[in-house]
Specification:
Elements: E1 6-11, H1 19-32, E2 37-42, H2 50-60, E3 64-70, E4 77-84, E5 89-96, H3 103-117, H4 119-124, E6 155-157, E7 166-168, E8 239-248, E9 254-263, E10 272-284, E11 290-305, E12 313-329, E13 333-337, E14 342-357, E15 360-370, E16 374-378, E17 383-386, E18 389-400
Parallel strand pairs: 1-2, 1-3
Antiparallel strand pairs: 3-4, 4-5, 6-7, 8-9, 8-18, 9-10, 10-11, 11-12, 12-14, 13-16, 14-15, 15-18, 16-17
Helix pairs in contact: 1-3
Length: about 400
């Protein structure tokens, strides 16, 4: 009985716990049968490589090794490369997906694609039964039975010296009858034809060509009904926290910080996220005043390109609604308006990111921020105004969950 199929699938570092990878492993085992062993491993230091896959095949002797590489961002296109151990050849597939395809469905599609290739390894290694009879050889041709022409017996002249009388030679010891004197010998012998020799036994047919001996498998693990990848239902970067340093021109030359959270709630729209943030900053205002501003914001972010291990750069843009509390202090200040100093406004920001590790990236963004201006009344009767529209910027780190 053939042994259970064993398959090792290499994915990029950090992708072993993704929903796509878990669905791939389950679909592959489901298609190959409950006895199949599907092992998923993360590549060392980045994307899978042929060198690493072939090294695992040499040391662990699976039936096949596979490599999964995402060649486009957002898991839009995947490249599968499988090496069939006994056939000694590579098989490749390129599979594209729609933006609306769920991560689990993409994994199932890839799993079924792998399962359609792996049986080639089993067919190549199918043993030949030792009890099969050898191919029958064609029967030897039956020789035709016929009488060879008899050799005329030799004659000698008679002792009388007569030219017309011819006497037969002395009869041979095998008692063969001789011809009458003076009568020519017949064309064929009157005796019974000789018995032909028995035909030789048929030659044995060619022996079946033995298949190459299978290398011994070293400590093959027992099949298990569970995948080696634990199920994971979240999509990549389903939640992210941002720690940012900020600059806002609405508080003069104000610097501060922000804590923000982004979530990708709809798997059918993996590029869109909801965002909330808390921020605080302080800086100088005209005429020697100081101002501080604390704000809470909520908005929508769009990520046309999300950073991944296969493409480490990402780009994003967002718009936010702001609710800000403004505080102004300084010598000679009589009144600031509006009062109370609560203002509502918004911002529009765009920027880029660079993925450092599978869970951490750095970002830098810039844009415009608008809040209603603040009017300041001084003791000498003069007025000062804080600008309502100004530049803003932020940079920091993003931690993925």
């Amino acid at each position: 009985m053939a042994s259970a199929l064993t398959l090792i699938v290499f994915v990029a570092a950090g992708e072993g716990a993704e929903a796509t990878t878990g669905a791939l492993a389950r679909a592959t085992r489901e298609a190959l049968g409950p006895g199949a062993l599907v092992i998923v491993r993360e590549a060392k230091g980045g994307d899978p490589s042929d060198v690493e896959a072939l090294a695992a095949e040499h040391t662990e002797t699976p039936d096949a090794v596979a490599e999964l590489t995402w060649t486009q961002s957002h898991h839009r296109q995947a490249t599968l490369r499988l090496h069939l151990a006994r056939a000694g050849r590579w098989v490749g597939r390129v599979i594209g997906f729609h933006p609306t395809d769920a991560e689990a469905e993409r994994g199932r599609t890839l799993g079924f694609a792998i399962a359609s290739i792996v049986p080639m390894a089993a067919e190549t290694a199918a043993p030949v039964s030792s009890s099969a009879p050898p191919p029958s050889s064609p029967p030897a041709p039956t020789p035709s039975v016929g009488s060879a022409p008899a050799t005329p017996p030799p004659t000698v002249p008679s002792s009388s010296g007569s030219s017309g009388d011819v006497l037969p030679a002395p009869p041979p010891h095998d008692d063969t009858p001789t011809a009458s004197p003076g009568v020519p010998p017949p064309a064929s012998s009157a005796t019974a034809p000789p018995v032909p020799p028995a035909p030789p036994p048929p030659a044995p047919g060619p022996a079946p060509t033995p298949l190459p001996s299978q290398p011994p498998r070293s400590a093959e693990p027992q099949p298990t009904p569970h995948d080696t990848v634990s199920p994971h239902t979240q999509t990549p970067q389903s939640l992210a926290a941002e720690l940012l340093g900020t600059y806002s021109g609405t508080t003069g030359r104000g610097f501060g910080g922000a804590l923000a959270f982004e979530g990708f709630p709809v798997s059918a729209f993996p590029s869109w996220a909801l965002r909330v943030a808390l921020s605080y900053g302080s800086g100088d205002l005209p005429d020697g005043f100081q101002g501080s501003i604390g704000a809470v914001s909520a908005g929508v972010a769009f990520h046309p390109v999300r950073a991944s291990l296969s493409f480490r750069f990402g780009f994003s843009a967002r718009v936010d609604w702001l609710l800000a509390y403004n505080s102004v202090s300084g010598p000679g200040l009589v009144q600031s308006q509006p009062s109370p100093p609560v203002r509502s406004g918004g911002d529009a920001v765009a920027g880029a990111s660079l993925l450092l590790t599978p869970d951490i990236e750095v970002v830098a963004r810039g844009g415009l921020q608008w809040l209603p201006p603040v009017n300041l009344t001084l003791t000498n009767g003069t007025m000062a105004t804080e600008n309502g529209l100004a530049l803003c910027a932020e940079s920091g780190i993003v931690i993925r969950f």
